[in-house]
Amino acid sequence: MATASPSVFLLMVNGQVESAQFPEYDDLYCKYCFVYGQDWAPTAGLEEGISQITSKSQDVRQALVWNFPIDVTFKSTNPYGWPQIVLSVYGPDMFGNDVVRGYGAVHVPFSPGRHKRTIPMFVPESTSKLQKFTSWFMGRRPEYTDPKVVAQGEGREAITAPRKAVFSVHGLTSPRALALVHIKGT
User: pTM (2 decimals)?
Assistant: First the structure.
């Protein structure tokens, strides 16, 4: 009698964090991480990373270009909790402290092929003028202790966060990403 073997599918993500438009800032670096459901597991590649510091280009666009590679493979038994990439951008303030300049998140594309995603970035702000002044004076601006909260809906209802910039991510999702792979038990 044949035993039922579990089925999984693989999602392969290959691309790069390309560039961003942060008009009022320079000398920024970015971090990325993936947020995914409990049935998902990374099988290859890095699920988080940190880029080099980049300066604005000298052309009219004044883009910050990273071209930071992303290469990761996930496996899952169902699509619930489809992976999202969370980006955090940091740079120096007037006192030389690294402060957050933007957060953003987007789902990994569902269909195979080449994709470009533009991600709106935001920064949490203090809710009162006293808190704003105190955080500026102390050099400790509001930021998330865990940037993965950006990809989750709960706990963000009362956050004041105006849009600050846009981010471009280019990538490929593999055509074999949704092919079923049967794994035999030992």
Answer: 0.80
